[in-house]
Write a structure and sequence with these properties.
With 259 residues, the chain is an alpha/beta fold. It has helices at residues 9-29, 42-56, 84-91, 113-126, 163-169, 189-193, 208-216, 248-258; strands spanning 2-6, 34-38, 65-69, 71-73, 103-104, 132-136, 157-160, 183-186, 197-202, 234-239.
């Protein structure tokens, strides 16, 4: 696992966007589609702004990109202001040249959520797997909606959200945790780990304990971010604030090897 440390969120976003852009461009030169896993949430907004800017400058095309989003709330229609479908189109897809038929987002209104999740896994397989999965991490170290206690071998499924996650997300629902859906459809830890590359963004002091557990602790289902220790090509990109709980030697080591 590689830990890339930057001074602030803006530089984290810029570095990550350029890394993704390089991968997309390389695939395009070879005439290959690029399968990209994407998150929602505030951590991803800076990256999306940077990618949009690259596209508008003519430096990046998404014409050959296929996307799979990490998750979606159960029970929210696509046009709901807090649906992740709406988030992605408002903040990213509407501003780039991606083919809407190549965008995959779980259907929170599916009549059979289990079948929806199984079909999602099948669609990923049909595309040849995900080349790069981008994600964020919760304050408790969860990735996607794989809350503490989630199996590290889990696949896309329906998941009950913890009280902590609902409280954290209440800011998007008028500050009321009761308005946050109590279940979601989410890719599993195993789904993320199957990607050829994984990049997770960890920003801010409130994520410091999660980063410490993921980097210096053992692999545990109680901090699903820690599974990246077992991935063949995983990167955690963080800012200085998120390293506050790490040992000084750990920070010096990773800053040293990145030059």
């Amino acid at each position: 696992m590689r830990l890339v440390i930057h001074p602030d969120y803006e530089s984290v976003s810029r570095w990550t966007a350029l890394y993704i852009a390089d991968r997309i461009t390389a695939a395009s030169r070879e005439g290959k589609p690029f399968v990209l896993g994407l998150p929602t949430g505030s951590s991803s907004l800076g990256i999306y702004r940077e990618l949009i800017a690259l596209h508008k400058r003519g430096a990046l095309s998404f014409a050959g990109v296929i996307t799979f989003n990490m998750d979606e709330y159960a029970g929210l229609p696509e046009d709901h202001e807090q649906s992740y479908h709406r988030f992605m189109w408002d903040n990213f897809f509407s501003h780039i040249d991606i083919d809407k038929n190549k965008v995959h987002i779980l259907n929170g209104m599916a009549k059979d959520p289990v079948m929806e999740c199984e079909a999602y896994e099948a669609a990923i397989t049909a595309c040849g797997g995900i080349d790069l999965f981008l994600g964020g991490a919760g304050a408790d170290g969860h990735i996607a909606f794989n809350e503490p206690g989630s199996s590290l071998a889990s696949r896309t499924r329906v998941k009950t959200l913890t009280a902590g996650t609902r409280i954290a997300n209440a800011r998007f629902f008028g500050g009321d945790p009761q308005k946050v859906p109590d279940t979601a459809l989410t890719v599993g830890v195993g789904t993320v780990m199957d990607a050829r590359e994984v990049i997770i963004i960890v920003s801010g002091y409130n994520k410091a304990r999660a980063l410490r557990r993921a980097v210096e602790g053992g692999v545990s289902q109680m901090c699903t971010l820690s599974c990246l220790q077992m991935h063949r090509k995983a990167i955690i990109v963080c800012d200085d604030a998120a390293t506050e709980e790490l040992k000084v030697g750990t920070v010096r080591y990773f800053k040293g090897i990145e030059g």
